[in-house]
Amino acid sequence: MGDDTTAQRLRLLQAEFVQPTRSGPGDGRKATQVEAPAPLNIGIVDRMAAAAAEIDDHMRAVEPPAHTPARPRPANPADRYEWWRHGTAHLAPQLQDAREQVIYRQGLEYDLAMGDTSFIRRHPCPGCGCWGLFWREAQQAAVCVNHYCVDDDGLSRTWSLAHLAQQHIARQKSLKISAT
Ligand SMILES: [Zn+2]
Asked: Pick from 140, 141, 164, 143: which is nearest to 43 by CA?
């Protein structure tokens, strides 16, 4: 019953950036090129392929439980998040947290791929707790605006998406625990 917004975002990206490949029974006519194919955004296609490969790598490393039949790997990467959750539901809680961190991070990466960095504002700075993070494209990192939140060299502290994802999943978990 996990959060499926990452899968939803991937479906959006697929609809936008992956050309539908026509297959199945034809209508008898020869396929004719009516218009030039839309240019693919290679960066986004690569991003999606890397995310799918990351899930596959994780699943290959998992020993399935003997009593639960393994589900076949879905053809659509957007369906692999549920497949991954199902196939790893028997693992230790910290391994499941690590899985949720990856899923959440991939969702953030899809946002970035769509040019949307507003997700940064939903994350407090892991260093000082302020809500002044912004995304710095050149560094591919979230940067804190707080002048007192600096590293040993006096530079603004920066955070990777993986770090923000780890903090987010930990925060969600503590909210869940305090709500029960
Ligand atoms: Zn900070």
From this structure: 140
Cα of 131 vs centre of ligand 1, distance in Å, is 8
Per-residue pLDDT of 48-78, as tens digits, reads 999 999 999 999 998 877 777 788 999 999 9
- Note whether 52 and 107 are same-domain residues: yes
**CB burial readout 152-167, b (16+ within 10 A) else e:** eeeebbbbebebbbbb
Q: Chain centroid to CA 74: how far?
A: 17
Q: What is the DSSP letter of 156?
A: B
Same domain (yes/no): 86, 122:
no
Angle at 118 between CA 112 and CA 124, to 5 degrees: 110
Number of domains in the chain: 2
142 alpha carbon – ligand 1 mean position (Å): 10
**Whether the predicted model's global pTM rises above the 0.90 cut:** no
Q: Is residue 109 domain-shared with residue 171, that is, in the same domain? A: no
Q: Is residue 32 part of a domain?
A: no
CA 4 – ligand 1 centroid, Å: 29
Instruction: Name the pLDDT band for 39 (thresholds 50, 70, 90).
Output: low
